[in-house]
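Thread: iron/sulfur cluster complex, take 2
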Amino acid sequence: MMNKYTIYLNSKRCIGCHGCEVHCKANKGLPVGPILCEITHEPLKPVRGVPKTEYRFRSCYHCEDPFCVRVCPTGAMQKREDGIVFVDYETCIGCMACAGACPWHIPQFNPDTGKAVKCDYCMDRLDQGLKPACVTKCTTHALKFVRLEEI
Amino acid sequence: MSKTVWSMCGMCSVRCPIKVEVEDDKVKWIEGNPHILGGALCAKGSAGNALYNDPERPQTPLIRRGGRGAGRWDPVSWETAIDYVGEKLENIINKYGARSIVLSCRGGPFVDLFKAFIHALGSPNFTNHDSACGRNVHHASLSVYGLGRKGFVYDIKNAKHLVLFGRNILSSLRVAEVNQVMDMLDAGGSLTYVDVRQTLTGIKATRFFQVRPGTDYALLLGMIHQVIKSGAYDKEFVEKYCVGFDKLAEFVEQYTPEWAAKECGVKAKKILDFVDEIGEQRPKVIFHPGWMLSRYKDSFYASRALHILNVLMGNVETEGGQIFAKGPGDCGKKGLRSLDANIPKPEEKRADGVGWRYKHFDKGPGLFHLFYDAMITEDPYPVKALICYRHDPFTCFPDIQAQKEALDNCDLLVSIDAHYSEFGWYSDVILPESIYLERDSMIATQKGPKPRFIVRRQAVPPKYNTKPCWEIFKLLADRLGVGQYFPYNTIEELWEWQLEPTGYKIEDFDEKGFVPLADKPVMYDRDNLEGKFKTPSGKIELVSSKLEEVGLPSFKPYESPLHPPKGQFRLIFGRAPVHAHSHTINNPLLNELMPENTLWINWRAAQKLGISQGDLVDVMADSVKATVKAHVTDFIHPEAVYTVHGFGRQVPLQSRAYHAGMADQKLQEGLLLSMDPAGGGLCLCEKFVTVRKSPRNPKRRVEL
Ligand code: SF4
Ligand code: SF4
Ligand code: SF4
Ligand code: SF4
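Output below.
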């Protein structure tokens, strides 16, 4: 299954406000604990007299052949036709084997539901023709949701 | 049942327009109004539902039991609370007169209601927090243009160069404005940033001046000198509209770029290059006049210098410059009806002395901190009641102990707030307001090149026993026998009454969430601005007649700020994008991102004190001490230490924020009356603190 989507951060436009992280949590109604995307930056370095840095955005890589899917004992962790790796909450038992198998520990534990939760590109929104929460509400419109076939 | 509600965010005072999706009385989604913000919102804006669900906010009216600040409360009904406040106020009015009641708020578009309430009682004492925020900027603007700080809006998007002196515009953020800044940068615009430290804004700059704390004014004088000397200013504009240019030129003669460079610790060549650049780019050059400039003893004059540089750039009423804020009248429309305008103005003089003792200040909200003086001295008369709406003086103003001593002379302290404020915790009565998602507001006017009417609409019913402020003040007014000035029983009636002269209906807000009053930007003829400047001379006053009249200089000779003594630092404070001062520290989702603040300290200074990254440090003023982690960095001036404002809260019911981090204002001992006599703002960065590595040994700890 080819991945169809990615989220691109225009680092020049990002202001490091961490809005996207909260937009994501608010959309999924997540409690304190799981954070599904993260803005990070390198230590500042002077460039022509101005201390500068680059921002990075990370949610989930939606791997071609995801370890989390392979290791999941219940089949809750799945990869969709369009490449989205998501948790089926009905089936998930919260064993968190997925997090252990993922090289970046991307799946996280949701203490409210006792199950795993991870970035699913807001597939419920995508299916309604909308964009992911983090992209829609990014403070500076620095995040772009990209359909790879379009490139 | 699902519905879409157009409203206004209330997580900070920017009040961005929002669209809220509601299902079965639950908030499902909040986004920035797509017509204005294209969906964008900041982190705080998305944390609104977390505030709604948070039980750690006042849930019902509370009346104090036991001593002030003891934290023992009787939950009461609204009837009891209103009656209690009403009776206390009645007694105060009978004994001392209505003038001894002060009402303070946080400014903003909805002040008509609060002004109306205090004026209806017969007191002139309406005020707000601004003497610890933007008063210097406001008064500087008045002195130059005769128009306040809101008299202009900045067309940053179309500017070629934005110059920011300590205005951390991408952290203390307004969603629409940050997008303008990013659009300007995307289009190849320049950003010059001046500060004592590097910030989230500074890292986007094309030019960065790290200056010694307190020397902004010197850099500005050097810039004005060079702009005039090199002829980089708009001669035609200055000749046509300004008075006092020759005096200005004469005054800045001594302040060469070389002098400024030395004073500020920057390179003179950089100032010369800067002036060359803006000379080419004007008039599309904007010097932001500052936002929170209650900082140094010359901040008012620094802000005047910023306004003057705008004038020299000739950037008035031009694309990419500063544009007169237009109202309904400029669009050939009628304005909203005002509650306050229908009430006879109290003739009494203000207890803060503004308007009679201090003739050069704007009488509107006066100067909050001066009421403390009146509470203590009873000069000009006793002040016996303070009602704070949404305003927390213990977080805004310095030296809490000094404030408490003054407040102890009051017979009644009331906090009307959706949050527990520290002042509220010390007060006698807390009247809990519904949070922004739970309440409607009056309609307000938002001025600008394209003015509009705006309104906040209730998205969900109040979760607790709280009320919107339009109802709280109406209940109080009825109880005190002045209900006739509030001609409504429901918000719908109030809207109808407000809108009546305009011809609009509340349904007109349903399409986009606001009512636009113009399709295209309304611009005055730049060659014909006579009558637009409201100074006594009708001109842009580089030499200010109002200042000179009261014996204050239009141009203040520069005085070099003191260097902190050994082991001490100048305490600087600011904002982070995930918090709005103290209001959000206890919000679960925002607290998760930033649960406490740190003390930024220059690495060389830290090294001398044996402080490493992450060490606990004690920050000490005269009698107050705070302990936080050190953030050791290259990117702050060695004379300064910096922290994010709003932390160090002491309301036990805010369990996440309680005692987390440090509170700069608590360390600012002795600064409560440190007012700039010309600008009216406090000088909150004029405090040296001692820093040491905390004697707590992190490695050794016994437990028996
Ligand atoms: S919301 Fe947008 S601007 Fe803010 S940190 Fe995230 S990507 Fe950057
Ligand atoms: S936590 Fe859920 S998704 Fe993850 S491995 Fe276990 S069952 Fe599968
Ligand atoms: S795409 Fe959706 S789930 Fe993934 S990080 Fe963005 S908001 Fe969160
Ligand atoms: S800046 Fe953020 S918190 Fe403030 S009003 Fe706008 S969205 Fe709300």
